[in-house]
Batch of 4 targets.
Target 1
Amino acid sequence: MTGEQFEARDRQPPAQREAELFARLPDAIAHAMAAAPGWARHLAGTEPRAVCDRAALAALPVLRKSDLLALQRQSPPFGGFLAGDLKGAPRVYMSPGPIFEPQPDGEDPWNAARALAAAGFKPGDMVFNTFSYHMTPGGFLLDHGARALGCTVFPAGVGNTEMLVEAAAILQPDGYVGTPDFLKVILDKARDAGRDLGSIRRALVSGGALFPSLRAEYASRGVAVRQCYATAELGVIAYESEAADGMIVNEDCIVEIVRPGTRTPVADGEVGELVVTTFKRAYPMIRFGTGDLSAILPGRSACGRTNMRLAGWLGRADQRTKIKGMFVDPVQIADVLARHPELVKARLSVSRRDEQDVMALFAESMAQDAALAARVAETLRDVTKLKGAVTLVPPGSLPNDGKVIVDERDYSAAPA
């Protein structure tokens, strides 16, 4: 598979793409309702053959990620949304929540190769993959895509930075895939150790926001960085190309932007929740609400690809927030409170420092002693799998605004 092999579909007339997608949709819905009891319940009363355009699709209910989490708890492990059984599924994953996902079949099961090609990766490249291969699908998602493109992959994973720098200095990879922040950690560590990582000239990042200042820093160090938007349930939904003029929707998925909390699509350009429909047979997703905010950009990309463009990630429709590539949910903060009866109320703040995400928990408590704060910090790490500072404050100190997680990172200068 090469970048040129994608071009016919990437550059087809938009009306042709739309017709092909909606010609496939009725069969996908019929299969989901027949093979998965969860979809049969969720779409009860739907006539699949009638869902042949966007207006008909918009009449269907949205399955939000929070709904899927609750349904999987009621009917583990997949909430009834697995179409058939696990026969043929090479792996099963557990994402934070926890939410379980079976791996789709195919050479490039999450449709990642197109995003890598658009980021400048080509057959024969060595890819330094720093996404986790542990429990979650992130590492495998890009691994399969890179190998389908004809690349060689070093499965670096996360952690043990010194060893990763040593491996990269020896192997001299052509490119990096991972979270936006971690590339800086590796490059800085290599510089401090006097190791040459100048072979890394391109990168595809995901799992967090690529802030303009960080992209500029990478460019100054000779690394062209592009980003893609992906989820465990859906695979790669959209990606940047060399034009860097928005995120181009991937082929084989239908994207809508709806008013948060509803099923109603908003006008192009209006910010709303990103809702996606995919066609995977074993684990179909029909109007899956990601909980992420975005908007449709006008026109087409200057690179010549003709699919719709998104304005990237513009925040969360709910308070579930991605921090260092991991989602943190309000229910997890409630879990921290439940484990410490001394605490009355808590609020998690997310900010940026030294081009990295930083989280801090502010908790109301009658006692503000250091030992209690240390125990709460340990619980916070156990529950979220992330480190965060803990500050204990007197009861009544936190705002009475219903917010459990506050994202204070500045997205105002984010690229379109």
Target 2
Amino acid sequence: MLMHAPRALYIHIPFCTNKCHYCDFNSFVLKGQPVDAYLDALESEMKQTVEALPPEIIDTVFVGGGTPTVLTPPQMQRFLESVRRHFPLSPNVEFSMEANPGTTDIDKLTAMIEGGVNRISFGVQSFDNGLLERIGRIHNTADVYRSIENAKKVGFTNLSIDLMFGLPKQTVEQLSDSVDKALQLDLTHYSLYSLKVEENTLFHKLYERNELPLPTEDEELAMFLVVMNKLNAAGYKHYEISNFALPGKESRHNSTYWRNEPYYGLGAGAHGYARGERHLNIKGVQPYIDAANKRLPRLDTNQISDAEAMEDFMMVGLRLLQGVNAESFGRQFPGHTMEGVFGEQLDRLVRDGLLEAIPSNGGYRLTEKGIPLGNEVFGAFIGVLPVASE
């Protein structure tokens, strides 16, 4: 498996203005939180991280949350300076930050762009105000338009928005209208995710009480096909199950995950993967601060066997519509081939018409039939190999 230092960096800012009804991310309502102490602890973790695993060059940075844009402009400036101080960024780094519409005024966007951020991903979710209220978002469509306009005004050209489908009482027509309005913004990238009802969320409680009116599977499939057809027709390349981009504007950072490559993960509750080891950081804000000021703030660390890494390679790699190829598999796992390890699963998925072989590179990719059934394909590689095998 790949043992070089990561070239991708993820940093978690766990603060939000409020908690959305569907969200199970490691996030905390901002009011009363020790934000400056958190930024101090984050810098301490940065310092310890680069001492423990010195970076060569960082090609991509992704700041997620929470909502990183709840930081004030001075906090944002300070935070971004600390990133540049500790990590050597490539001259053509892709530096992304998640944002919530309504939390990015001109001053904050200026601090972001001056601090090196060059790509923003806005969590829009829908262009239907009633639906936004129903899922616990506190922004409205006016905030979306204003936020995008301000971002373009200060010089951002690489902008993405997230939309969701399969939401309570959402119709195919509502989703179609949201996609049309999203396309009118003329952005470089769109991500479209179906709702997953996660434990420890308000939606899960409602679901358990049979009070969450979700679309049927057929309606959700119809929504996915509407999304695919509209974005493809508008010239956006469907490059990953949930992601569409103009040519050359694919998310380079997220592609690190989909290719099962290493990445640094810093902040409360952040995951990282390097030198064959995955870690999870302490999740609570104050416990994270206390730990990071003394040591690397690990909650859990696991050595990943070749068997687990191979399964991960197939599951995440097949999310990319270009699929997985023999050269990448052989580079990560010398002495092994995909057919040698997963021949039975690959044969069955090809026979079922969900995967197709790619003769030019010895790889496999989802078929048109397999794209909407991706989870069935990815699940075929879970638990196939004995974990202890090396």
Target 3
Amino acid sequence: MNKLEAEFSNLVKAYRKRHMGKGPGRITTTFCKNWAICEMEGNLSPVEKFIAGAEDGKQMLREARTQWVKEIYRNHPPVEMEELLGARFLDLYVDIDIDKDFGMSIFVFDRVLPQS
């Protein structure tokens, strides 16, 4: 991970903490074409871990997590990330494995990002 990717990771963590109350414990970002691919560990709060143990809890939590994150980015565009990269944010793809507490987010921008 180069310096720009590390800075992007820090912005993602701060953004999620600000808008969701908790950011991931660890983020690794890789730029590929016009994508910023973030691998995230330690996403779930203690309450979410408890919910995951209930019947249908994992599926409900996964759906809520993925849809909620996308909605937050739609309602609060990541201006700091756009400024860092000099690119406009277009879209976000999100998934999370509740059992592993591991998530992936792919940020799509309007231009090719610097490669590591």
Target 4
Amino acid sequence: MSDFYQNGVITNFHNLTHRSVESLEKEMVRFSRKRKMGLILPSLFSELEGPALDNIVNELAKVPYLEEIVIGLDRADRDQFLFAREFFSRLPQRHRILWNDGPRLKALDAELDKEGLSPSQPGKGRNVWFCTGYTLASDRTQCVALHDCDIVTYERGMLARLLYPLANPSFQYEFCKGFYARVADGKLNGRVGRLLVGPLLRSLQKVYGHSEYLDYLTSFRYPLSGEFAMRTHVLNGIKIPGDWGLEIGVLSEIYRNYTTRQTCQVEIADNYDHKHQPLAEDDGTGGLKRMSNDIVQSLLRKLATMGVPLTSDSFRVLKATYYRNALDMMEIYNHEATMNGLKFDQHIEEAAVEMFTQAILDAGQAFIERPNEKPFIPSWSRVQSAFPDILQRIYQAVEEDNDGKV
């Protein structure tokens, strides 16, 4: 069963039947004969030392339909990379680790940087970008999923549900986004999605006028989810942000390149929890503060490319509009928590809203001060026009790291 957003923007698939994982996987094995499937896992080395990724790898080892798993490894020295090779060796599927801090990939990155074609900063976006390049170079899959490595409630049925709309040969979707309820430990989670993105999208509509693009983003039940899948050829033409705006940036690129009828979202879990970010790190940066700033800037950059006039005065109006909308939404979430017997800390929620409000002003100021900043990492199509053999060279570097001496 499915339902549609009010103007038919995207299709929603709900996990209504709760069919068994074994039943899903049996069908996915049949689909894999026509559409080979892969998975991208962007990871920090620190995640290899936590319980979430260990369970994820154990679950993935049972998946019978994956053709390839591509793991992006950040912040790892030589010994840590060798540890990672051993850590992931239990996977029976073909798998490769991209040692992003290793000499081979760093040399390629430096070469791209000379031509202004390399990600400008380290982070998840850069990690994912190199993984998509290797996936294209490997050319073993027709559709590929991506999910984070900090999901503490992970079970392999999540992956099957995420890939199903793309793997089914009778479906013609190009992109699928995962969604789920953010409830854990007796309270509502997902503050950035609930208290920033939702109220901000409504506020942008009020301040800058109706937009089909904003309608499109609003139709996603959880636009910030790190779980999505796409046909592999899609990777060649999308430009993604290198920062915390990755998820919004990917949705924006899909909107630009494909019709909404080719996009869907699917409920992949009843219970979902992952590592939580603090509002800010001890030095006042990072955490949700940096994340919210990156997300707001990603939205502003996209609106600017669509001809929306963004000014300092309008940011002040946006800030006030957002603040009122966010407080109204916070009250509704308070009621929802009460109805479901969940804890609700109004002080913490209001502190988050106040920080997000400041993030809107900070992001707007940064946008005004750096109008020529490159918002996206170049698409692989663009990179290949300058370096025709770049994918083959990435492939060779990764193979040598995984199979040879390092």
